[in-house]
Design goal:
It contains 6 helices and 6 strands, in the order αααββββααββα. It is α+β, with helices and mostly antiparallel strands.
């Protein structure tokens, strides 16, 4: 079972490092949808990883690889301009609007100090999402464009700092777009690799550096 879990996590990371797109299934009426007919694979990105590794050995190898590849991040303040490129509604004609996480609401793009949209910590800041990645020199995961996502302030407030789960916590698909379950799961997996202080647990407790629910996250990664 442990080996299966880490294979699923590795698969999730491979998908995450390619450009993800939330417009793959059910959406609201604000966003035009298109099917993705081809995806760019990870190439030789993981060629240095021994495929026989499992458990903490695999996690450590992936962490070291990420530390080698991720030379810098855009920075927490830089996310506001980064969103205007990577999260823009390129298929629409809404003057540069960006697509909100969880609900696909068209928001921004101008920053209004969080009045209408803000930076959602997929791995909550209060649960280690702003920690130092295991060393004083590592970029924090909340400076990495993989993790904080542009989100309507009201939706961000509804999520709070809950774990992700189908019941008893926040469901990333609760806004009607189930694909965000898979996207959120892969972001969580990435954070656990990037920051050695963060842990995945198979419950919905609110530990200082824990996130779950691992069994649901693994299922979502494969399903969405």
């Amino acid at each position: 079972m442990k080996k299966f879990k880490h294979i699923a996590i590795l698969s999730g990371l491979a998908i995450l490092f390619s450009f993800f797109n939330p417009f793959l299934s059910k959406s609201n009426n604000n966003v035009e949808t298109k099917a993705i007919t081809s995806l760019t694979g990870p190439g030789d990105y993981y060629s240095s990883i021994d495929s026989s590794l499992t458990g903490e050995s695999l996690k450590s190898a992936l962490h070291n690889l990420n530390q080698t590849k991720r030379k810098k991040t855009v920075g927490y303040d830089g996310l506001r301009s980064t969103y205007q490129i990577f999260d823009r509604d390129w298929m629409g004609q809404d003057n540069g609007k960006i697509v909100g996480f969880y609900d696909n609401a068209l928001i921004g793009p101008s920053w209004d100090s969080g009045k209408t949209w803000n930076r959602e910590h997929v791995w909550p800041n209060s649960r280690g999402g702003g920690s130092k990645g295991g060393s004083s020199t590592s970029p924090t995961v909340d400076q990495d464009a993989h993790m904080p996502r542009p989100t309507s302030t009201s939706v961000n407030s509804s999520r709070g700092n809950d774990s992700y789960a189908e019941s008893g916590a926040y469901d990333p698909g609760s806004e009607g777009i189930e694909n965000y379950r898979g996207i959120a799961a892969r972001i969580i997996f990435y954070c656990a690799i990037a920051d050695t202080q963060l842990s995945l647990v198979d419950n919905v407790s609110k530990g200082n550096t824990d996130m779950g629910k691992l069994s649901d996250l693994l299922k979502w990664n494969l399903q969405y």
